[in-house]
Amino acid sequence: MAQLTEQIQIGTTIFQCLPIQGFWDKTIPAVCGVDVNSFFIGNAVPNIVTDWALLLLPLPYIWRLHRNTVQKLAIYATFLLGGL
Description:
It is built from four helices and two strands, in the order H-E-E-H-H-H. By secondary structure, it is mainly alpha-helical. The chain has a two-stranded antiparallel ribbon.
């Protein structure tokens, strides 16, 4: 699903320029409806916030588990791998 979302985002940025070649060839005068940098920053910020939330929200619950510290760190490392 994430790959489809990325393809849609890239397609949105490339195909909104007329002519399409004007997106990557700056010598061609093109009309683009959306500022590409703002578009990607607007997409990146919610993704970064979600990543941090998924990493930080389970911490209090992990530390309340009746496990030793090494096992708690191993559980948290599993969450860290999911955030990659």
